[in-house]
Amino acid sequence: MLQALLRRSVYAGNGPSGDLKIVRALSGALGAAPVYPLGTSTAQDCVGLTSASHEDSHRTKLGWAASWGLAAAGFTTLCSTPLSIVQAEDAASTSGEQPPAKSPLKPIVIFVLGGPGSGKGTQCENIVREYGFVHLSAGDLLRAEMKSGSQYGDMIATMIKEGKIVPSEVTVRLLQNAMAASGKNKFLIDGFPRNDENRAAFERETGIQPEFVLFFDCPEEVMEARLLDRGKSSGRSDDNMESIRKRFKTFVNQSVPVVDHYDGLGKVKKVSATRSKEDVFRSIQPFFTEFQQANLLEATQMLLDAIDGGDYEAYAKLCDEKLTAFEPEAQGHLAEGLGFHKFYFDLKKPVADAASPESLALIRPKSTISSPKVSVYGDVAVVTYVRLQQDVGSSKTGFTSAHQETRVWQRKRDGKGLAEWKHVHFHRSAAPSV
Ligand SMILES: Nc1ncnc2c1ncn2[C@@H]1O[C@H](COP(=O)(O)OP(=O)(O)OP(=O)(O)O)[C@@H](O)[C@H]1O
Ligand SMILES: Nc1ccn([C@@H]2O[C@H](COP(=O)(O)O)[C@@H](O)[C@H]2O)c(=O)n1
């Protein structure tokens, strides 16, 4: 399963072929993000992202497949401010220049479905916290659009109160814009597709098929009690008995057939949603193991890219400050802390500064991960692989070295309580060059 995921989300390295399994996980670079016009506000209003991608993205009107870049394997939630409405002019690159071609990363989409109040939003928050997906709630996007002064505001307000489904033309655009603006490639799309029209429009417009559909199965009486309780404080126009009844009808008549459609394709992972929030989350965690493994491999490739690129800042961000290491340079001793490694980054600097950007790009070494194995033990993970490093010698001839590397990662919480993997220990073998 991991290999299947990697085949989709990574590109093959240019090392030897044959039995050797080579993956080059991520270049760490963001590609152009497509945006789609819908209404009248500006992109600046809409995005509250931590990623640098928004600030310096060169926006183009390319489609999905054209250039989907990748951000860190980090953890981002989208803001709830409206991000729907981006003018076509805003979407064009301000400089007129096209960004350098980046390796396309296919978006990975999981649809999260279930009746109103079944707990979709609650569990999406958990998944974001632990597995680093971007959570896009179609309902939240519509509510934000409604409040933004959009031309569609009144129509959306009526549809929500009546428990009816907003035309896909609006919802799919909102989703496309939010996906593009995120700069990420792994999405939990919550409360969508709500009917067959939603499903067909999304497939047609994006060409994306979901990895799977996470379906929360919950009886109406449980959902009703939850929604009425939520209604005491949510301020939502549809958390009242009259709207709830209408929403249930819409769910049975229009949304259940969508679940049946995906069930026919073997894509539905059904979860009983009546238990406690913690129990429900425990039951969905196994579906996300493969993504966690892919995240770790991505983080490892970013680390190697930082080393190859001489980018100490990027390297230090991924590492625990107490990083320990056995590596040939330490002559059999355990290197503790980042100082030992920083020495090598600093050493490279004057050479890099002296060179022109063009020649720098040419002489930069390149590491490819081969035969990876990722094992996760709770909050600790071990990533083992062979690192094939291509470089250029002083006589300008290329050479490749191979090291066996074992890298240990530990899951820690950032300031916002989101899980992030920190590199805590590694062991690198010596290797002859050929
Ligand atoms: N397993 C659970 N046990 C008890 N209460 C829950 C559980 N899951 C969610 N809730 C509560 O039920 C309410 C509805 O949950 P949530 O908002 O996650 O549902 P939803 O499926 O996203 O609903 P909607 O589609 O209406 O937005 C919330 O108040 C939430 O705290
Ligand atoms: N694909 C969708 C999703 C939602 N809506 C409308 O929003 C209402 C609230 O949705 P929640 O997911 O937050 O419960 C929903 O009842 C619909 O009116 C939609 O039209 N299309």
From TrEMBL:
Compartments where found: Cytoplasm; Nucleus
Swiss-Prot/TrEMBL keywords: ATP-binding, Cytoplasm, Kinase, Nucleotide-binding, Nucleus, Pyrimidine biosynthesis, Transferase
CDD domains according to UniProt: ADK (cd01428)
Residues the entry annotates as binding ATP: 117-122, 230, 275
Enzyme type, top EC level: transferase
GO molecular-function term, one example from the UniProt record: calcium/calmodulin-dependent protein kinase activity
Entry binding sites for CMP: 198
Entry keyword Translocase: no
Annotated positions binding a ribonucleoside 5'-phosphate: 143, 164-166, 191-194, 236, 247
Cofactor note as given: Binds 1 Mg(2+) ion per monomer.
EC number(s) from the headed UniProt entry: 2.7.4.14
Any one GO BP annotation for this protein: CDP biosynthetic process
Necessary cofactors: Mg(2+)
GO CC, one annotated term: cytoplasm
Region (LID): 229-239
Reactions it catalyzes: dCMP + ATP = dCDP + ADP; UMP + ATP = UDP + ADP; CMP + ATP = CDP + ADP
Protein task: Catalyzes the phosphorylation of pyrimidine nucleoside monophosphates at the expense of ATP. Plays an important role in de novo pyrimidine nucleotide biosynthesis. Has preference for UMP and CMP as phosphate acceptors.
Protein family: Belongs to the adenylate kinase family. UMP-CMP kinase subfamily.
UniProt free text on domains: Consists of three domains, a large central CORE domain and two small peripheral domains, NMPbind and LID, which undergo movements during catalysis. The LID domain closes over the site of phosphoryl transfer upon ATP binding. Assembling and dissambling the active center during each catalytic cycle provides an effective means to prevent ATP hydrolysis.
Subunit structure: Monomer.
Protein name: UMP-CMP kinase
Organism: Klebsormidium nitens
